[in-house]
Write a structure and sequence with these properties.
By secondary structure, this protein is of the alpha+beta class. It is 37% helix and 18% strand. It has two helices and two strands; from the N terminus they run αββα. Strands 1-2 form a two-stranded antiparallel sheet. The longest helix is centred in the first third of the chain and has 18 residues. The mean pLDDT is 82.
């Protein structure tokens, strides 16, 4: 099994941007994309997608707690 390459992550990054635009009426600014080993640094809240096939690994959307709470509030119509 081969590890995921950065170019295989781009469709997920684009999808997150589209989801934020559609569901949250917000824009996403990609500030960093990094490859970390298993058990690497984590933020307060992490959404993880496991990938298998031509490449294997996990894609994680890592957010600080305050950001995750603000996004959840917006999705629930609380803000």
């Amino acid at each position: 099994m081969k590890p995921i390459k950065k170019n295989q992550v781009n469709p997920f990054v684009l999808s997150v941007g589209e989801m934020f635009a559609t569901m949250l009426e917000s824009e996403v600014d990609r500030t960093a994309l990094s490859m970390v080993p298993d058990g690497g640094d984590a933020a307060d809240i992490n959404a993880v997608i496991s990938i298998s096939g031509a490449g294997t690994g996990c894609i994680s959307l890592a957010l600080p707690n305050a950001t995750a709470l603000a996004l959840a509030g917006k999705l629930l119509g609380e803000t």
